[in-house]
Specification:
Layout lengths: L1 E4 L14 H9 L3 E5 L10 H6 L3 E3 L2 H5 L4 E6 L14 E5 L6 H9 L3 E4 L14 H20 L7 E3 L2 E3 L3 E5 L3 H12 L3 E5 L3 H9 L3 E2 L20 H15 L4 E4 L14 H5 L6 E4 L16 E4 L2 E4 L9 H17 L2 E2 L4 E2 L6 H6 L2 E2 L2 E2 L77 H9 L9 H5 L40
Parallel strand pairs: 1-2, 1-4, 2-3, 4-5, 5-6, 9-10, 9-12, 10-11, 12-13, 13-15
Antiparallel strand pairs: 7-8, 14-15, 16-17, 18-19
Bound molecules: nicotinamide-adenine-dinucleotide (NAD).
Nicotinamide-adenine-dinucleotide binds next to helix 5 and helix 6.
Length: 507
């Protein structure tokens, strides 16, 4: 039984689907593992590391794939890149099938059994295999790190001989996996953090992290099925827009993560709201690959509007590839382990297992997943009802796959949430109340810090801070001096281990 690990060809993809740790475990399960030369380079995993774990290094993709029973990948390879694998070989990765139905059909034609990890059910048994969670968690963390790089002030309250500097205010919109990690990270960096979500249950989680939960009476609970949010009604959207408009103008850093299964990302931050923020503020839009929560977001790009930087990276987990690969590889190992008979040292897929049924897209030359399979026609000509194939809105494809002809796709955080075709106007916020006018300057640092640190202050906060009321003063009362224009954010030196990104663009 041979497992092949490919070097990723998708532009800017820095992760790899196996690590020396997981390779050693595959070998213990009776597999031989071949890794394509250079596959781990961008994650700081050398060919030597893989060899020491027991893998062989394939000089080319073809050499690596020859005779493979399982192919592990991060992004979906093109069907014509899979020549030489055994008939019926498993292809396992974040295959991002929505909007890429032709590529899925080509995989079927190539005779591989393609398994899309994004479709892993969110059940207890499969938590260890949940790539959406492992990568969203890292993306939430990285969003705050990226914001801090661009933000030209300190995050924590600084009490120095030269005076006190107030802590940054961070606002997280959407408190799911990514949002909660963004809250925790911003807290650790010393920011005063608030967050909002439309699921009431999220409020408790936000508060347990020491952040303030922002919610209106009009928006009591918009929980949908499976722990996800439902789309808001027009009235609810208006109430939320009013809430956000009143809050966002006072924030320094905003991280948006709001998603609704099967819909485009809801637009939560209008142009007017961005313009209400002080120059130097930073927004990181984690929903960029689904169109963005921010009206001005350009997927894959960093832009500045009116002094506010808007980061629209679409693969934030890929910005910390070493950790992202480590967790992703473990997710895959956990799943592959269920597909192998360790005693017999061979593949033993139980096609009736719910994890397999949920993830398998193609098998025996056909597309078999219910969301993509062509409707069956019986002898009488009737058609069996199937769920409508979902399409991702075209505009959300930020990058171009190189060098294959495959389309650029969203990263693996999206596919399982797009099970129905989006309506043209879905997720659009109604006309928001005009955002409060921008009052660029802040409260005098020391007082503001004490007043706002409140119960959220970190260990460096002082007693007066803890006693002070946490309530924020309306922006309009703040002094009007505008901070100097924010630094241009775009060009940053890529880290040595990271592939170069186009200026201002995503990696
Ligand atoms: P997600 O990526 O679908 O959405 C992110 C967040 O955006 C959600 O919290 C959602 O409520 C919120 N949101 C949607 N519309 C919004 C709006 N208009 N304004 C503000 N916020 C909005 O969510 P997720 O991170 O995948 O998590 C969804 C749920 O699934 C959570 O309850 C999470 O705890 C749960 N979960 C369960 C498992 C498991 O059981 N294995 C794994 C991961 C997550």
């Amino acid at each position: 039984m041979k497992i092949a690990v490919l070097r990723e060809r998708f532009e800017g993809e820095s992760r790899v689907a196996a690590t020396p740790e997981t390779i050693a475990k595959y070998i213990a399960l009776g597999a031989e593992v071949a890794v394509e030369k250079g596959a781990g380079e961008a994650s700081r995993l050398s060919d030597d590391d893989f060899q020491q774990a027991g893998a062989t290094i394939g000089a080319t993709a073809a050499a690596t794939l020859k005779g493979a029973d399982i192919v592990l990948c991060v992004r979906r390879p093109a069907a014509d890149e899979l020549g030489g694998v055994n008939k019926g070989a498993l292809l396992v990765g974040a295959l991002d099938p929505y909007g890429n139905e032709q590529d899925v059909a080509a995989l079927a034609k190539a005779g591989v059994a393609a398994m899309s990890m994004e479709f892993m059910p969110r059940i207890t048994r499969a938590q260890v295999m949940d790539i959406l969670s492992s990568q969203a968690n890292l993306a939430g963390y990285q969003a705050v790190i990226e914001a801090s790089k661009v933000f030209d002030r300190a995050m924590p309250m600084m009490m120095t001989a030269a005076g006190t500097v107030r802590p940054a205010k961070a606002f997280v919109m959407g408190a799911g996996v990514a949002g909660l990690q963004a809250i925790a990270t911003a807290k650790r960096l010393g920011a005063v953090v608030s967050a909002t979500d439309v699921r009431a249950a999220a409020g408790e989680q936000v508060e347990s992290l020491g952040a303030k939960f922002i919610m209106t009476e009009a928006l009591k609970d918009a929980s949908g099925t499976g722990g996800y949010a439902r789309e808001l009604t027009k009235d609810e959207q208006a109430a939320q827009a009013e809430l956000v408009a009143g809050h966002i103008s006072k924030q320094d850093i905003v991280v948006t993560t709001a998603l609704i299964p099967g819909r485009p990302a809801p637009k939560l931050v209008t142009k007017a709201m961005v313009e209400s923020m002080a120059p130097g503020s930073v927004i990181v839009d984690l929903a960029a690959e689904r169109g963005g929560n921010v009206e001005l977001t350009q997927p894959g790009k960093v832009i500045t509007h009116d002094g506010v930087t808007i980061i629209g990276y679409t693969n934030l987990a890929g910005h910390i590839p070493t950790t992202a690969s480590q967790l992703y590889a473990r997710n895959l190992l956990a799943f592959i382990t269920t597909l192998i008979d360790a005693k017999e040292k061979k593949l033993a897929v139980n096609w009736d297992d719910e994890l397999v049924k949920a993830t398998v897209l193609t098998r025996d030359g056909a597309v078999v997943h219910s969301a993509f399979a062509a409707p069956k026609t019986d002898t009488a000509g009737d058609t069996e009802a199937k769920p409508a194939p979902a399409k991702k809105p075209a505009a959300k494809k930020p990058a171009t796959r190189k060098p294959s002809a495959g389309k650029a796709t969203a990263s693996q955080t999206s596919a399982s949430k797009t099970a129905t075709a989006p309506k043209a106007d879905a997720g659009q916020a109604p006309e928001a109340k005009p955002a409060p006018r921008k009052t660029a300057a802040r409260k005098p640092a020391a007082k503001a810090a004490a007043a706002e640190a409140g119960p959220q202050a970190d260990a460096s906060a002082t007693a007066p801070a803890a006693k002070a009321a946490a309530a924020e003063k309306p922006a309009a009362k703040k002094p009007a001096a505008r901070k100097p224009a924010a630094k241009k954010p775009a060009a940053r030196k890529p880290a040595a281990n990271k592939p170069a990104a186009p200026e201002g663009g995503d990696k």
